[in-house]
Design a protein that fits this description.
Helix content is 62%, strand content 12%. With 92 residues, the chain is mainly α. The chain has two domains: 1-37; 39-89. It has a three-stranded antiparallel β-sheet. Strand 2 (69-72) and strand 3 form a beta hairpin.
Length: 92
């Protein structure tokens, strides 16, 4: 068995760093969980999910009816479920 000895100050710094990283991981996990529950995505979120940068590619996918979307006025929302299905069908 190996025993490691810390100075009190070093131990407290280590503890603070671990708690800080733990809380950051919890915040990130909480944010991710909330985003995954969200059914409708805005344009920016849709582009991030697909890993694309252009709105024209989203327009092309809408025109070809490869993804589901909703249009209200000038606001377009995309179905997360349809994006995941699209990615599943088109990943090889």
């Amino acid at each position: 068995m190996e025993v490691i000895v810390f100075q009190k100050e070093a131990y407290e710094r280590l503890q603070d760093e671990l708690f800080s990283r733990f809380h950051e991981a919890l915040r990130h996990a909480s944010k991710t969980a909330k985003e995954e529950k969200k059914e409708w995505l805005n344009t920016q979120e849709a582009k991030e999910l697909l890993g694309i940068k252009s709105k024209s590619k989203l327009q092309e996918l809408r025109d070809q009816r490869l993804i589901s979307f909703s249009l209200y006025g000038r606001i377009i929302k995309y179905s997360r479920k349809s994006f995941l299905q699209f990615l599943e069908l088109n990943s090889q």
